[in-house]
Amino acid sequence: MRSVPSLLSMLDHPAAPPPAPLPAPVMPWDYIRMRRLAAGLSIEQAARPFWHRPEHQADVERNMRAIEAVGFRVKRLWDMSRSFRLNLTVYRQLCDSPPEQHPRLCRACGWDEWSSQLDVEGFDCTWSAADPEICTLCEQARRPKFRPRPANTQPHHHTGGAAQRAA
Ligand SMILES: [Zn+2]
User: Fold this and answer.
1) At a CB cut-off of 8 Å and minimum separation 6, what does 61 contact?
2) Distance 94 CA to ligand 1 centre (A)
3) Nearest by Cα to 163 from 88, 63, 70
4) Residue of 38, 58, 40 lying closest to 48 (CA atoms)
5) Measured in angstroms, how far is the CA atom of residue 106 from the centroid of ligand 1?
6) Inter-CA distances, 71 with 28, 29, 108, Å
7) How far is the CA of 95 from the centre of ligand 1 (A)?
8) Strand partners of residue 52
9) I need a labelling partner for 15 at 20 to 30 A (CA). Which of 23, 88, 106, 139 fits?
10) Using CA atoms, how far apart are residues 121 and 51, in angstroms rounded to an integer?
11) pLDDT tens readout for residues 96-130
């Protein structure tokens, strides 16, 4: 009966190998960072559409950095669509609900199934069959023969459904 260790027996014997770690939940600040990086933008690049006078640059960049700081939740996140695509409803859920109720997200790019995103082949993104933790865009991007297309150059069908929903 001892061949299958229970959680309790593991806790009783700290020398036993720990159970496989659960993937860490994606928190609101992780989500913003994932979406920014998926768009291939630095903080400075992501901030650029939001300032027009040089004296505002530092403030805007500080704000962009702040929303990615661990533990930071924004009550009313501004519309990011000028810079990168983000689902504000998902962001709200990540802020307001416990991790076990968080929406499922691609763990590589932060895509959610309510947002339209095209994969490398130009099809609607869905969950990878090979690795359900990621989306088909990220799965294809891992294959050496594909290069991910920058998010802001997506062609044809889907005229920014997610951006409109997020706005
Ligand atoms: Zn992805």
Assistant:
1) 43, 44, 47
2) 17
3) 88
4) 58
5) 5
6) 8, 7, 20
7) 21
8) none
9) 23
10) 35
11) 999 999 999 999 999 999 999 999 889 999 999 99
Compute the CA torsion angle 141, 153, 28, 44 (nearest 10 deg). 110
User: Which residues in the chain come in under a pLDDT of 50?
Assistant: 1-14, 18, 20-21, 157-167
| Contact indicator for 92, 84 with CB cutoff of 8 Å | no
User: What is the CB-side half-sphere exposure of residue 127 using CA atoms within 13 A?
Assistant: 10
Determine the distance separating the centroid of ligand 1 and the alpha carbon of 129, expressed in angstroms. 13
Q: Can you spell out the DSSP letters for 42-68?
A: -HHHHHGGG--SGGGHHHHHHHHHHTT
Residue 40 Cα to ligand 1 midpoint, Å, equals 13
| C-alpha to C-alpha distance for 5 and 19, rounded to whole angstroms | 10
Angle at which helices 88-96 and 28-38 pack, to 10 degrees?
150
Give the Å distance between the CA of 121 and the centre of ligand 1: 14
- The residue length of the chain stands at 167
Query: What is the whole-number distance in angstroms between the Cα of residue 38 and the centre of ligand 1?
Result: 8
Q: How far away, in angstroms, is 57 Cα from ligand 1 center?
A: 30
